[in-house]
């Protein structure tokens, strides 16, 4: 890697880190296109894998601050993470089986879908006091598991791990 490529890669990584820090997500939506079209990573699968590492490290750094501030609901996080890992493994296997150009198009479609979903109004009011307990398990476990598998699948497939 020559010096100009390294500088472009560092600048791209800095931009992605800044976006992750400001919005607590969105790293892969920038990382994959930057790695492919600006840095010049030749394979979409390699760009997705590389982005996944960068986003994971940034997410772990952000987790430390949230955990120290007491803003992590650990039982919910554990169920969501475990089901997300299963979904990510399935999504990553499917992503490896798809042609790189087609994968980039599907990644773009997924990001448009996620963006449009975020513009919609919530169907239910925000519930800040939600906790996974014996009393709430029948309601929360299926939701956490299904959403975790879906988010993990999308993250594994598109390389957007931690953006869910």
Note down, in words, how this protein is organized:
It contains 6 helices and no strands. It is mainly α and 164 residues long. The longest helix has 25 residues, at 44-68. Mean pLDDT is 80; it is low at 160-164.
Short description:
With 164 residues, the chain is an all-alpha fold. The chain has helices at residues 3-23, 27-39, 44-68, 74-96, 100-119, 137-158.
Task: Give short descriptive properties of this protein.
164 residues, globular
Radius of gyration based on Cα positions? 17 Å
- What percent of residues are in strands? under 5%
Shape: globular
Give a count of the beta strands, DSSP E runs of length 2 or more: 0
Structural class: mainly alpha
User: Poorly predicted ranges (pLDDT <50, ≥5 residues)?
Assistant: 160-164
Question: Termini, distance in Å?
Answer: 32 Å
- The share of residues in helices is over 70%
H-E string? HHHHHH
Largest sheet: none
Oligomer: single chain
Helix tally? 6
Task: Look at the structure and give the mean pLDDT.
Answer: 80
């Amino acid at each position: 890697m020559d010096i100009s490529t390294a500088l472009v890669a560092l600048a791209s990584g800095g931009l992605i880190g800044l976006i992750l820090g400001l919005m607590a997500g969105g790293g892969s939506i920038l990382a994959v296109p930057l790695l492919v079209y600006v840095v010049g990573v030749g394979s979409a699968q390699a760009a997705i894998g590389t982005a996944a590492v960068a986003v994971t490290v940034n997410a772990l750094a952000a987790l430390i601050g949230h955990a120290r501030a007491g803003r992590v609901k650990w039982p919910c996080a554990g169920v969501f993470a475990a089901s997300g890992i299963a979904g990510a493994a399935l999504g990553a296997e499917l992503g490896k089986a798809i042609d790189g150009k087609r994968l980039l198009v599907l990644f773009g479609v997924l990001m448009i879908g996620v963006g449009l979903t975020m513009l919609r109004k919530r169907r239910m009011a925000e519930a800040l006091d939600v906790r996974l307990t014996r009393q709430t398990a029948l309601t929360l476990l299926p939701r956490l598991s299904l959403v975790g598998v879906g988010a993990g699948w999308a993250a594994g497939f598109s390389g957007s791990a931690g953006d869910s």
